[in-house]
Amino acid sequence: LATMCGGRSRRLLSEPDSAFGRAAPCTGRRGRCYAILTATLLFWAVLGWGGVILKVFPPHPTDDYCAIFTFICLWMPLVAFVDNPNEKRTWRERSEEFIFVWLLESGLAQCLWELPFVLIKTKYLQPIQSTETLQDDELWLWGFWMYGSGDTRYMRFHPETHATETMLAISGPFELWAAYLLATGQRYKTALLIAALTHWGFFWANTSVIYIAEYYGGYQWVADGWVGFWIKLGGLNLHWSTLSPLCTALALQLIIHKAREEGQLQMKKAT
Questions:
Q1: Residue 93, C-beta contacts closer than 8 angstroms, at least 6 positions apart
Q2: pTM of the prediction?
Q3: What pLDDT, on a 0 to 100 scale, did the predictor assign at position 15?
Q4: Average model confidence (pLDDT) across the chain
Q5: CA angle at residue 32 from 235 to 202, to 5 degrees?
Q6: Which segments of the chain have a pLDDT < 50?
Q7: Which H or E element spans position 110?
Q8: What are the tens digits of pLDDT across the range 150-180?
Q9: What value does the CA radius of gyration of the chain take, rounded to a whole number of Å?
Q10: How far apart are CA 132 and CA 14, in angstroms?
């Protein structure tokens, strides 16, 4: 992550007069926070999933512990707004780093979690009967069951959810491409436009299908007690209903200010 953020400094060579694309490398306090949260997320993913498959840990309540840590770690993009000691960044630099980290995190989530879910849901997840434990031949599905045992629409025949998650999974590669463009200083406005459009879609799809539809249905698909309701259904989707509209707003602001800057530079050159 620090290397990718540091790659933005290439813009300083191609556009020395631009105030945009100058986000500092993710080092210092922010770099350590990113490293700790990423390591914690991977640790619990490997420990939980591997431990369940090897029958070191039971599927439940291991799923609840991992869900709680995942909920905490997914707030990682907010670290972008924290300055290191003796560091004074502009709102542009904070916004650029936030958008980059959120694109990277969300894009990886869509490609590594949503896409496999979309592909295996019908054949492998829907036959799972229990929200409390798994059979031996189902243990390899524990990572998906961890969420589905709380929001059971993910393990049952529910075409609306399946269709929504399909569209989200398709958006993942576009997010990662936009993150790459920001990291390497290419097509600045294009990357921000991708961020704005995809995450406005995430906000609408996530909020309507996950929260509003469940409310209208009387929470009939929720299981696993308070963890299933507050952490799995409520918490693990909250990032896309809060950080995504923030991403869209900041990306549009940056596009507007970048266009103004380009217009001013062209006028100066013309005179």
A1: 22, 23, 24
A2: 0.91
A3: 57
A4: 90
A5: 35
A6: 2-4, 6-14
A7: none
A8: 999 999 999 999 999 999 999 999 999 999 9
A9: 20
A10: 56
pLDDT of res. 16: 53
Quote the crossing angle between the two packed helices 188-205 and 159-184, to the nearest 10°. 160
Q: Given the structure tokens 């290419």, which residue do they identify?
A: 186
Q: Dihedral of CA 60/63/69/71: which sign?
A: negative
Those residues whose C-beta lies under 8 Å from the C-beta of residue 102, and which sit 6 or more positions away, are 77, 195, 199, 243, 244, 247
> Residue 167 and residue 223: Cα distance in Å, rounded?
25
Q: Which of 209, 210, 197 is nearest to 247 (CA)?
A: 197
Beta bridge partners of 151: 222
Task: Please report which helix (H) or strand (E) contains residue 149, including its range.
Answer: none
Distance CA 58, CA 51 (A): 8
